[in-house]
Amino acid sequence: MTHGRRPGLRPLAMRLHRWVALALGAWFALLGLTGAVLVWHAEIDRALNPAWFAPLPACGAPSSAPIAMSLALFQPRAQGATAQQVVAPTTPGAAYMVTTKPGDDGLRRQHFVDPACGRHLGVRTWGALRLDRAHIVPAFYEFHRALLSKEAGHVAVGFAGLALLFVAVSGAFAAWPRQQTRDAWRRTLTLKRNASRTRRHYDLHRATGMWLLAFLLLMALTGTYLCFPKQARALVAVALPTSPAEMRKAAPAPVAPLQADQLARRAQALWDGARWTRVQVAGGQDGAFDLRLMQREELRADTGDTRVRLDRDGRVVDVRDPLRGPAGDRLLSWLFPLHSGEALGPVGRLAWTVFGLAPLLLFATGLWLWLRTTRSRSQGRMASGTMSVS
């Protein structure tokens, strides 16, 4: 009686792994490279655009109503656009940001304002294919997130995540030692000394994939979640208690922008030490006022993942608390910080930057091996044909 995998599965796994990786490997490499850069997107954006993201010169006491003041500074430069969010600075003393609803071109504008000094500091188009200092980080971000192709590109990236998951699993299956011995694992995870060039490429490809298998699986799974959050939430809800994807509706009523600062302070008071990071100022049809806040213990270092919906009178309609909510919510709140490296601190982010080069290395070595094999087979067929003619 034999044990282990059926003989036909390993060759099939290798063929599927090879052709999917050859077809999509360049895309995987670009996603890895842009992701390696975006681990530091906030620092890069701050270095390139200090007038927006670094602390501004003080000119009196901070505004007591920064949301209302930000909207007032935005309005003369709106050019017909509608404000959707006000975003608080992640660096204390830096500019506030007013983002607009998508325009006719499907792109949002980000207006940077200084409520304390009453200044409009500039505007940029998020997702535009421009490589000047104001737009290069958003361009990288939107390429990584959606191939600069809005929702259709976002869905395509989600399917790329599923394809990467398949390539990682099939590659591990094909490379897994048949015999579970120390020598077999040593050969799988190391490079053979004094080997031929082809063997060195093969060993490097196999060892890199196996050593970084956990990272590749994590990136594939978390990236797919970010593209298909509703479907992923429904899947998690099968195993763990999870809040509904949509928050409860408030009583119908318009939101008055001048009330926004009072409502933000009321939301902050729900948690000790919490601060608001984003407010939805374009009131929905149900009159809800949505905020995102960051609590002290949260993993997301820029925006937090605490969400509150208030009605116009400041009553709490619904809450999403990543620290005290259902187990499914707490699990899902980890996925973005793990994908971005935030959850692991500076050392983890540095590791993510290095590991982000892995798809390029795997694609380059895999492509070289395939070209080498194809050329050898072609030369073999030519030699056989010559011998037949002779």
Description:
The chain is α+β, with helices and mostly antiparallel strands. It has 3 domains: 1-34 and 152-240 and 328-390; 50-85 and 95-132, no CATH class; 243-325, SHC Adaptor Protein. 52% of the residues lie in helices and 12% in strands. It is built from 14 helices and 8 strands. It has an 8-stranded antiparallel beta sheet with strand order 4-3-2-1-5-6-7-8. Residues 1-5 have low confidence and may be disordered.
Tell me the layout of helices and strands.
Blueprint: H1 9-38, H2 41-48, H3 50-53, H4 66-74, E1 83-87, E2 96-100, E3 108-114, E4 119-126, H5 136-146, H6 150-175, H7 182-189, H8 197-211, H9 213-227, H10 229-239, H11 260-268, E5 275-280, E6 289-294, E7 306-310, E8 316-320, H12 327-340, H13 345-355, H14 358-389
Helix pairs in contact: 1-5, 1-6, 1-13, 1-14, 5-6, 6-9, 8-14, 9-10, 9-12
Search tags:
elongated, disordered N terminus, alpha+beta, single chain, eight-stranded antiparallel β-sheet, 14 helices, 8 strands
Strand content: 5-15%
Give the SSE order as H and E letters: HHHHEEEEHHHHHHHEEEEHHH
- The largest sheet has its strands arranged as 4-3-2-1-5-6-7-8
| Domain module count | 3
State the secondary-structure class. alpha+beta
Low-confidence stretches: 1-5
**Major sheet: size, sense and barrel closure?**
8 strands, antiparallel
Number of helical runs?
14
Give the beta-strand count. 8
